[in-house]
Specification:
homodimer, 10 helices, alpha/beta, five-stranded mixed sheet, globular
């Protein structure tokens, strides 16, 4: 294959079970993609060696030399020091103080950028997705936990120090729920899919008449985050109560972020965001009423993410394209 | 007087009752200062004419021409559009859609910068005060309300649109208190001096044995925000309960901001901050335990503001010096 000359970037989405690597062009189209298992139980050096080898192979197989790749971006779970490219701590992949950028450059002689995976997803939606063309956006990912990312002036906001931009870890509740972070009553303890599923199980256990039982096949362990919404849709009182509470929790978090960042849009991603208009409809209504200064000031719109499971790759490549973080060992 | 040639800026602190104008040098020393009544009931044109006239006079009387003044900064209460230099809404001075920068330039042929007063106070603490030398800082002002400002990379963060950076308007409570902004349970409804005084009155009304009665001279209308702290210091159970609750509310807000911005420091200003170590001691203890990722990540320190009632002037001049906002009509 003849060597191609258009500029590309590598976007790498590091997850607890799999690593997705994409070759991304300047329009944020994914030209080619490869996946490999993380094998998170292995030493980090092996994981990063596999990652780097697969990325280099992807480039070469698609006809690009390192000279035509402007860099590699990696979205990692956990707390990341983007300045040094180090993963300080990640529960998912059991990493502590892993010099990801430095290690990866053993295999990729390129500028390497590292950020938190939710930061990457946020950036991806701004570059190509629900917030395309926006300079300022906030992103909530509603999954196992509640992650988040903030884009300011087109770039990922990393916080003053690592450990910032944890918008899932604002206090919004009052039931004394212990969050995974150790604090009481964080948004994550109420608005994650995990929390919604637990609330649905508790509700069903108290209400044998609820349609939730039918939906989960009489087995609470089969409950998922869609079932409360389906029950609500069908007019089940328990489902409706669950959805009302859930949207209330999320509205609190969304309004806090609107008052603090006043972005162009607030994007919802992660599993629960598949509910689309059922979430964004009431959230936008709530914001219009409750956002600070709504009568005179701009009220951000809540929208649903569009990049799906490509969000990580697009955003990680976007770290390179926007030079959103300080490059490591350029 | 011979004309001076060092570069200076004008810092203007617009308040509900008074306007303070300072001539500030490059080290953020106030070389000269003048105050005048706001006369907030008058048309805005008259107020701004007085402001501009007094500022021009201050310059001239101190031997500076407009050529040696690099600009004027104004800190205004309320919701400000710093891009256009417009005060969108201010309850204190009863302004709506006032083109402050444009009007002021009729009297001051200089670049004019406008921002919210709490933003200015935050910047002032970074330029000369408790956060001096910090690139990233958060500032809470604990007064009639709870205002706030955020400095990112040495500049005021204005939010994506006007109405942002309202860190007093995050939900932290659960008692169903209606905030001045219309929303329920904002930090302001719990951690302002106003809220503390109301809590102290309610507590005293329920506890005739409390020392609070003695401190307020048996007249609840004389209660101030210092009395609960004084009562607590003397071992009064009601005072101790009030202070414990108050610090708990503030700890929630401070921890949210630490998790979202992870600044170098979090500065407390406004009347209640006079309690100093009585606040910062327990807040720093709380943060060490509850800040997200405290075991691996940087934990911001809570400190008390140092600029006192000069904060507005220093910060407003700082808007000019740091070109923190887009200048209007340069």
């Amino acid at each position: 294959m003849s060597e191609k000359t258009g500029k590309v970037a590598l976007g790498i989405d590091l997850g607890g079970t799999g690593i997705k690597i994409g070759l991304v062009d300047g329009s944020y189209e994914i030209l080619a993609q490869v996946s490999l298992p993380t094998g998170a139980q292995r030493p980090y050096g092996q994981i990063i060696a596999d990652m780097g080898g697969a990325a280099a192979k992807l480039l070469k197989e698609n006809g690009y030399s390192f000279a035509h790749c402007i860099g590699a971006g990696v979205g990692s779970p956990g707390t990341v020091d983007s300045k040094s490219g180090t993963v300080l701590y990640s529960n998912n992949i059991r990493w502590e103080q892993v010099p990801l950028a430095r290690e990866l450059q053993k295999y990729l002689p390129l500028p390497v950028f590292v950020s938190n995976d939710a930061n990457c997803a946020a950036l991806g939606e701004v570059l190509k997705g629900a917030a395309k063309g926006c300079k300022n956006a906030a992103f909530f990912t509603l999954g196992t936990g509640v992650g988040g990312g903030i884009v300011i002036d087109g770039k990922v906001f990393e916080g003053g120090h690592p450990g910032g931009v944890e918008i899932g870890h604002m206090k919004i509740g009052s039931k004394g729920r212990r969050c995974t972070c150790g604090r009481l009553d964080c948004l994550e303890a109420y608005a994650s899919a995990t929390a919604l599923i637990q609330d649905a199980k508790d509700m069903a256990a108290q209400h044998p008449e609820s349609m939730l039982w039918e939906l989960c096949g009489q087995d609470l362990e089969q409950m998922d985050a869609k079932m409360p919404f389906d029950a609500a849709q069908a007019g089940d009182a328990c489902g409706m109560a669950l959805v009302k509470d859930y949207i209330g929790y999320l509205a609190d978090g969304v309004t806090d972020i609107a008052n603090i960042f006043r972005p162009d849009v607030i994007v919802l991603g992660g599993g629960v965001s598949a509910q689309g208009e059922k979430l964004t409809g009431p959230l936008n209504e709530y914001l219009k009423e409750n956002c600070f200064g709504a009568a005179v000031a701009y009220v951000p719109k809540v929208v649903v993410a569009e990049n799906g499971n490509q969000a990580g790759i697009i955003g990680a490549a976007g770290l390179v394209m926007t030079s959103a973080t300080t490059p490591v060992c350029r």
